[in-house]
Design goal:
The chain is α/β, with parallel strands linked by helices. The protein has one domain: 3-Layer(bba) Sandwich (D-tyrosyl-trna(Tyr) Deacylase, Chain: A). It is 19% helix and 38% strand. The strands form two sheets. Strands 1, 2, 3, 6, 7 and 8 form a six-stranded mixed β-sheet that branches. A hairpin with a 2-residue loop joins strand 1 and strand 2. Helix 1 packs across helix 2. The longest helix is centred in the C-terminal third of the chain and has 15 residues.
Length: 149
């Protein structure tokens, strides 16, 4: 499971012109689900996202996590993160989980996120979304939790 984490001052997701999710300061995370991913990967990715220290301390060093700064998390499903881009000019998606599996795992990730002490909202799986954000820094990290640990 892949999480492209971005530190933001604000983020939102629109579907057909309607805002379905929005946050202020926090993390906007694009989520890609690969073959072999399961609930264990969703749990581990959420743990890493909540504990990842990307917010500055008094000296400007990244020493605080989203919980410590009172931020929120916006999870956005994005199967293209699992693309194979090693050859040619068109991405392949053979590494991406089947859509039904991907949807189930994304929904489980969101459900797990709603049981923590950080506000967690989400985009809509399978929808064409407009994602808006103000990346602070910019700060962007690619986290991956593989099925084999």
């Amino acid at each position: 499971m892949i999480g492209l984490l971005q530190r933001v001052s604000q983020g939102s997701v629109l579907v057909e012109g309607e805002t379905i999710a929005a946050i202020g300061a926090g993390l906007l995370v694009l989520v890609g689900i690969e073959h072999g991913d399961g609930v264990a990967q969703a749990e581990r990715l959420l743990e890493r996202l909540l504990a990842y220290r990307v917010f500055p301390d008094e000296e400007g060093r990244m020493n605080h996590d989203v919980r410590e700064v009172g931020g929120s998390v916006l999870l956005v499903p994005q199967f293209t993160l699992a693309a194979d881009t090693h050859k040619g000019n068109r991405p392949g998606f053979s590494r991406a989980a089947d859509p039904s599996v991907g949807q189930t795992l994304f929904e489980r990730l969101v459900e797990l996120g709603q049981n923590v002490k950080v506000p967690v909202v989400a985009g809509r799986f399978g929808a064409t979304m407009q994602v808006n954000l103000s990346n602070e820094g910019p700060v962007t990290f690619w986290l991956r939790v593989s099925p084999d640990g």
